[in-house]
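Lab notebook, design round three. We kept the backbone fixed and only want residue identities now. Task for the bench partner: fill in a sequence for the structure below.
Input structure tokens:
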């Protein structure tokens, strides 16, 4: 094959093609982020509408996460049987149904039901997007493209908080009538119809993953897809790498299962689970689920709290570009270590600030400069997380497992992430009533643990192909289990 096929124009065209595929797949992350934060502006009104206690309010907020955990757990297996694209469509349909149902909820059990259904769709999207992106991306830019998942999540969070704010402000409050006489909080949920439809349309236009096609014996179709995303002279080599790795892992059937001798799972799967759990145990989603009510709880007005939440979501979007720019240059491991250190310091300072809270005229307040200090370090925490652990956990889950178990292992890791998210979310209202200082001190402790975990257990995956990592992981499995 002539080198003319590798002209700069052709290479740029292929890179644009792969980038477009990654962006389209990452819209699943937008649904993830939107669902994560749309409840933020509605939670106070839901409490009033249905007369909820702190515990039941926490459960109503966290109920979607039950569906997310189930959806994430089954997504990998569905994707291995049905293909990545069909499962994306299922996720989009579930979120569409949930958005309509939650908006029309007439009782708390009804709302919880629709939230769980939406959670199933979000859980599916949280697995399929990073798996698909990692499987169509060249290794030189895989980290950057895989980070699009987190960028889409942050954009979804921003869109949810912005739409919440717009509905609440224009109606004069989240509980006040908005369009057609419906309370503003119901419209906050209904807006989710738009991204779910967009995600479904984009999924219909995506090609199937070449690794899935090759695994199904559909090599001609896999070759056709590869011809659109890699240079022409490397198509045969790329297809051979994929088929060789599939064959190697098939021969190592026991080692290619997520099952192992250590507590029922392979060690590499446990590493993924712990990584996913720690990402949530630092308390990031407390900021995006409860920030509006949180800032009101320490003396800020409702309108100011909405504005603070929206600004925080913008910060979250912007810092994700740091990860996108650095992940393929300096690697995953050092970014995670820096992020853990930054999160620990920031969370510790937030805990100290909240420990200074006093009661003024029967309402809590942060005296002097402590309110500003809490705001600054809460946003520095978001910076530390958004530039590192936010995107890189998904990058690593998408690339650290052998090919033959990637979708299933990613599903287990994502399910663990959602379960940890549920635990933090449902427990936070009670923890906050006990002590905000204790709550953030606990999150700081987990940030410190995350530093030592990365130092001891997370290898660098920068610049390695999925096939290289898959075979080496499978071949090292007996030593890891010994």
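Proposed sequence:
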């Amino acid at each position: 094959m002539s080198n003319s096929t590798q002209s700069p124009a052709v290479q740029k065209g292929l890179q644009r093609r792969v980038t477009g595929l990654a962006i389209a797949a990452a819209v699943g992350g937008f649904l993830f982020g939107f669902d994560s934060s749309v409840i933020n502006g509605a939670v106070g009104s839901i409490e009033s509408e249905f007369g909820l206690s702190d515990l039941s309010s926490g459960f109503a907020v966290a109920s979607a996460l039950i569906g997310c955990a189930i959806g994430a757990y089954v997504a990998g297996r569905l994707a291995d049987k049905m293909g990545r694209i069909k499962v994306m469509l299922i996720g989009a349909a579930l979120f569409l149904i949930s958005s309509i149902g939650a908006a029309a909820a007439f009782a708390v059990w009804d709302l919880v039901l629709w939230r769980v259904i939406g959670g199933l769709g979000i859980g599916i999207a949280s697995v399929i997007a990073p798996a698909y992106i990692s499987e169509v991306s060249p290794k030189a830019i895989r980290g950057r493209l895989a980070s699009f998942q987190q960028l889409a999540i942050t954009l979804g969070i921003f869109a949810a908080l912005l739409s919440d704010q717009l509905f609440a402000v224009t109606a004069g409050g989240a509980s006040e009538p908005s369009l057609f006489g419906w309370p503003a909080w119901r419209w906050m949920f209904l807006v989710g119809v738009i991204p779910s439809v967009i995600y479904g349309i984009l999924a219909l236009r995506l090609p199937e993953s070449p690794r899935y096609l090759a695994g199904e014996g559909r090599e001609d179709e896999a070759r056709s897809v590869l011809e659109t995303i890699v240079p022409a002279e490397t198509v045969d080599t790329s297809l051979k790498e994929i088929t060789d790795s599939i064959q190697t892992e098939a021969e190592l059937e026991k080692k290619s299962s997520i099952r192992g001798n250590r507590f029922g799972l392979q060690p590499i799967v446990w590493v993924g689970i712990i990584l996913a759990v720690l990402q949530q145990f630092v308390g990031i989603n407390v900021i995006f689920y409860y920030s509006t009510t949180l800032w009101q709880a320490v003396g800020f007005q409702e309108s100011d709290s909405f504005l603070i939440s929206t600004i925080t979501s913008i910060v979250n979007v912007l810092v994700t570009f740091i990860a996108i720019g650095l992940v393929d240059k300096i690697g995953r491991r050092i970014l995670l270590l820096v992020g853990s250190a930054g999160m620990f310091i920031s969370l510790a300072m937030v805990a100290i600030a909240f420990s200074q809270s006093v009661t003024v005229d029967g309402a809590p307040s942060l005296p002097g400069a402590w309110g500003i200090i809490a705001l600054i370090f809460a946003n520095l925490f978001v910076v530390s997380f958004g530039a590192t652990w936010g995107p890189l956990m998904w990058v690593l889950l998408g690339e650290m497992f052998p090919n033959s178990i990637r979708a299933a292992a990613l599903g287990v890791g994502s399910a663990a992430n959602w379960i940890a998210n549920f635990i933090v979310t449902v427990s936070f209202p009670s923890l906050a009533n006990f002590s905000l200082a204790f709550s953030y001190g606990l999150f700081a402790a987990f940030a410190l643990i995350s530093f030592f975990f990365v130092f001891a257990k997370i290898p660098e995956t920068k610049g390695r192909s999925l096939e290289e990592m898959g075979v080496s992981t499978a071949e090292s499995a007996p030593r890891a289990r010994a």
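Keep this in mind before ordering anything: Residues 470-482 have pLDDT under 50 and may be disordered.
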